Amino acid sequence: MIAEDLFDLAPVIPVVVLDDAEAAVPLARALVGGGLPVIEVTLRTPAALPAIARIAAEVPDAVVGAGTVVRPEDAERSAAAGARFLVSPGCTSRLQAAMAATGVPFLPGVATASEAIALLEGGITAMKFFPAEAAGGAACLKALGGPLPRIRFCPTGGVSRSNAADYLALENVGCVGGSWLTPADAVRDGDWDRVRDLAAEAAALR
């Protein structure tokens, strides 16, 4: 699998924050059951790496990845835990090299044309656009499509149920990432039917 393949698996990548690794498997099964097999578990809590490992081992239909990869060791540990892709909010040459060294597909984060061009010079054409809304939203991405037609983006950061379709309508958007699929109260209460319904609604966006 290459990074661009992620765009073809589902229109929305759930961005998941987990405080309890025990919730990882039922959550992943609910998302997959709703039609969203690609799941980004962010490295914002101690439960993240164990959660990735659990999903990788127990939910074979899920394509689980690690988000908030900001240090070289984040990339290494995520790949070792079973992450099948990596996502960073921004990118440096050192972080890019570390992500590439894992052999796992990755979406490096950019917020400007200059950052995107720097990655394009290295042959990267699939990127995360973050923070999407704060950086100019769908209008900004549409503008970038003119001078940078080879790049496809996964915008995250402020992408929601109400504006996801605006992003997905753009030719240079492969998919979007968002946290609205896994509301904190639904995860806390184990309301997996609600998560499945939200996933099904999002899966129908394309």
TrEMBL record:
It catalyses: 2-dehydro-3-deoxy-6-phospho-D-gluconate = D-glyceraldehyde 3-phosphate + pyruvate. GO terms for molecular function: (R,S)-4-hydroxy-2-oxoglutarate aldolase activity; 2-dehydro-3-deoxy-phosphogluconate aldolase activity. InterPro entries: Aldlse_KDPG_KHG, Aldolase_TIM, KDPG/KHG_AS_1, KDPG/KHG_AS_2. Its EC number is 4.1.2.14. Pfam families: Aldolase. Keywords: Carbohydrate metabolism, Lyase, Schiff base. Pathway: Carbohydrate acid metabolism; 2-dehydro-3-deoxy-D-gluconate degradation; D-glyceraldehyde 3-phosphate and pyruvate from 2-dehydro-3-deoxy-D-gluconate: step 2/2. SUPFAM superfamilies: Aldolase. Transmembrane segments: none annotated. It comes from the Bacteria. Signal peptide: none annotated. Homotrimer. Belongs to the KHG/KDPG aldolase family. This is 2-dehydro-3-deoxy-phosphogluconate aldolase. It comes from Actinomadura monticuli. The lineage of its organism: Bacteria, Bacillati, Actinomycetota, Actinomycetes, Streptosporangiales.
